[in-house]
Structure formats: structure tokens, C-alpha cells
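Q: I have 203 residues here and want to know how they pack in 3D. Can you give me a structure?
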Amino acid sequence: MDSSAHDEFSRASLEALDEAFFRMRAVRDDNGHIADFEYQYCNRTALCVLGRSAEQVFGRGLLDLYPSHATNGLFDAYVRVMETGEPLRYEFVFDEGGLAGEFEIMVSRFADGFILVGHDITERKRDARQLATLAEQLQGALTSRVAIEQAKGYLAAKFDMDTTTAFHVIRRYARDHNQRIHDVAEAIVAGQLDLADKKDGRK
């Protein structure tokens, strides 16, 4: 395979990726310090993530298109990759220039620049947060139920009543005192609340 065919094969392979792929070149000042990074190549997926055409990106500076990189730590992180040769794996939230979401990137030094492979993890992060919230709610409901069952058993044993009546006593006290039934149940189990004068109530 000659060099031109190899280059075409490599480009076609990158275009087939579902991951966003960027090749960036360091732009240096007169003292040799990195002042910016220039977009040399972005595959189809990368351009889709950016919401821009190749003509709007190729040859442009990173800080030109997304100046917040200079203040959010990303530019400095890319410079460290260049200086140390240590790859970077990073998750971050970004919202600028029409590009918004949560992203995961892998950055490695390449020639006098770096290559970046990344993807939008907004949906995955949102689903994870929803699952965490649901799990927390379920755990809270379970904890509350356990406390109520313990309080019912405690009152039933102490005052020789059935658990249904004990629950009515707890619920009535919570309603009359504008408290959560879970809080009343916990106070009973902890010995902080005596319902001796309420035990004959039904509802």
C-alpha cells in the first residue's frame, strides 16, 4: 500500500469511528511557549459534537473558538500533556459556543500537538443521577418503613394491642402534631416519646 493509499485508509478509519477524534497542533509564541492549539483534523463525529463544519473548524485556534479553555483548566491540562507526555483522561461539563454537555476525553501527545478522543456522556450521567436519586428514595422509604414497623411492634408489646391499632395511634399522633409519621416512629423506638395516654385511640 503506497503512502497516499495508506493516508486515505487511515482517514476512512477515523471517519468510521463513533468516537469524536481531534488532531491538534501546538501554536507557539516567539519564546517557544504554547499560546494556543490549532484544529488540524476532526472526524465526522467530532464535527457533529461541535455542531460546526470542517470549514468552520480546520485551521482555527482552540482559544479562538472556545476561549473558556483558558480559564477552566482544560488548556493548561493539554499543555501538561505536551510537556510531560503523560496521557490525560478527564470528565467535565462544558457550555460555550453552542457546545454544551458532559464529556469524557482521552488526550495523548502526538508530534508537536496532541490527539483527543472523546464522547458525549450527558445522557449516561443523567441516567446515573436519576438511578442514584431513585435508589436514595427507595432506601429512604425502606428506612421509614422499618422504623414504623419497629414502633408498631414496640407499642403493641407495651400496651397489649394489635399492630393495626398501634399504627393508628402513631398516625393520629403524627397528624395531630403536624409531624412526619417516620419521625414519630423513630422517637417512639428511641424512647423519646411516650404515647401512654394515646393508646386507646383508634384513628
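Q: Anything worth noting?
A: The CA atoms of residues 12 and 122 lie 27 Å apart. The mean pLDDT is 86.
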